[in-house]
Amino acid sequence: MPQKTSFDVRLGKWTRREFRQAMESCQLKGCILPLAAVEQHLEHMAMEHDWRSVNVIAEQVAEALRPGVVVAQGIMAGISEHHMKHPGTLSLSPGTFLSVVDDLVDSLVRAGFENILVLNGHGGNVIPCQQTWDQFLRRHPVNLHFMSYWDVLNQEDALDLLEGGHRLPEDLPGHAQEFETSMALRWFSENVRSQAMQDQKDRSPLLGTREKGEAFPRRIVERLTDYMHGMLAGSRKQTIPPFHP
Ligand SMILES: [Zn+2]
């Protein structure tokens, strides 16, 4: 067993010895790889939002499955060309982004992980990843899953918890509006500028509350933990697509 006295779910906090020993003892069963974006989030929220929110979720899921799962924080930026009108946004082109994801997954497979959940926190990454996933599965034939952290939410959750609108995905997750602002208010409130919430055109962020920012992750983490538990237990196996005969 590793000699770590306190368990940190972030892979980057481990030394090579601690990691090697945890792998050799078969303690580590799975890994979460967060994907995000550094992009404008209206006038009132910091550009790192998607990175922070996806990591809040990933770390809580890993904590719930402790000590079998770590979070590999490999890439902050994502595909954000559609936000480039607002300077400060950092965007990767789809080819670059997918190459980096491919390399990071390859690193995790070579580290010995057989269960990898690529957990996304930014809408612009979704379609490129989904359309490429069958190729990734052929290249990395492990139990490799892709999903956005809000995929486990549904219409009922929107009706229960949101006040401003209940459409998926326009209101849930939306962009920097009621849902995301609630997440930030609860988990990293230093990223929210209350004055700017008052004077910008989009009023929907004003509906964000710490309470909603507590209620949503509770549901998300519970369902994602169940999902990943299935991955680790072998009941949720990814099918490797066939090759041409
Ligand atoms: Zn966002």
Return the CATH architecture: 3-Layer(aba) Sandwich
Output the number of helix runs: 8
Strand order in space, largest sheet: 2-1-3-4
Please summarize the sheet with the most strands: 4 strands, parallel
CATH superfamily: Creatininase
Quickly give the structural class: alpha/beta
The gross shape turns out to be: globular
Distance between the termini: 45 Å
As residue ranges, the low-confidence spans are none
Strand content: 5-15%
CATH overall fold name:
Rossmann fold
* Overall strand count: 4
Please state the CA-atom Rg, rounded to the nearest Å.
18 Å
Portion in helices: 40-55%
Summarize, please:
Helix content is 42%, strand content 9%.
